[in-house]
Amino acid sequence: MRMSTWIRQHTAALRALLVLTVITGIAYPAVVFAVAQLPGLHDKAEGSLVKQDGRIVGSRLIGQAFTDGKGNALVQYFQSRPSNSAPSDGSIPDGYDATNSAFGNMGPESIVDTLDPDPSKTKLSLLSTVCSRSKAVGEREGVSGARPFCTPDGVGAVLSVIGPRDAHGTVVKPTKVVSLNEACPAKPFLDAYKGVKVDCAVPGEDYSTGQIVPIPGDASSDTPVPADAVTASASGLDPNISPEYAAIQTARVAKARGISEAQVRTLVEAHTYKRDLGFLGEPRVNVLELNLDLDKQYPFQG
After folding, report:
1. Could you give the residue ranges of the DSSP H alpha helices within the chain?
2. Residue 234: what pLDDT?
């Protein structure tokens, strides 16, 4: 009796395994594949690939860089968002390695750089990364890249204020002040703080005993360089930029291609997507589609 019960139970289990294997391992994938071949869905199922002259040049869903071999922006193209996705060997200097999708893993409290005597080993904080990118974008696009809490040289404006503290941990009488993100022999962005001369930071020195003081400066918070121009997306592979970032690139692209800004703006508008369903997400411009359309209608003559 016990043996027959054991056999029945295992036979039922085997039948269930076979039925579920057929349903989930054969029937369901076959139905999904068939649905993916329907008109209007096939292109998306294949990865939303974009072709030019019969060859695949990218995907509408995956960002890519428009730079030279050294990571420098090509002036005739709209530039994508920064990317943290890059191989560790540095073979792709501007990121956008689709096989290594990644995020920076830094938050708003990342404001102090890790300075090393070997500059190549220095690790920038999120603040200095944003500051340096904003400065570079501003110089490239002919707008102000100044931002609050950034030095004119494009690093985080952060001080270590050393001295006796009160009960709340605030330094009441500074004895030494160091600009933490400006490695010697750089000239600090401030000459003095509360009457004490500001020194540059010696790479490798520990200034953690000081009170960390970010300095906002006098730059406007309404900067023309938008956030997506200086921060990477979570995946590092965002194919879109904001209309604001596209707007400050228009003059450069028009000049490089020898066309009017109005002609470029018309193409930008043609490749600007509104909020999904009218309320989801933000308006965005697909960079790959825009640049391909530029090449088609106004080839670069440089």
Report:
1. 2-20, 28-36, 42-45, 126-141, 243-257, 261-270, 287-297
2. 81
Dihedrals phi, psi of 151, to nearest 5 degrees: -80, 160
Q: What is the pLDDT of residue 26?
A: 87
Check residue 169 and report its DSSP letter.
S
| Percent of the chain scoring above 70 in pLDDT | 91
pLDDT tens per residue across span 162-201: 999 998 889 999 999 999 999 999 999 999 999 999 999 9
Q: Are 86 and 96 in contact (CB under 8 A)?
A: yes
Angstrom CA distances, 69 to 44, 91, 191, 201, 290, stand at 31, 9, 40, 33, 21
What is the C-alpha to C-alpha distance for residues 267 and 284, in angstroms, rounded to an integer? 13
What residue type is assigned to position 57 of the chain? V
Specify the range with the lowest mean pLDDT, choosing from 45-59, 116-130, 240-254.
45-59
Nearest-angstrom CA–CA distance, 143 and 123: 27
| 129, 84 contact by CB (below 8 A) | no
CB neighbour list of residue 254: distance below 8 Å, 6 or more residues apart: 260, 261, 263, 264
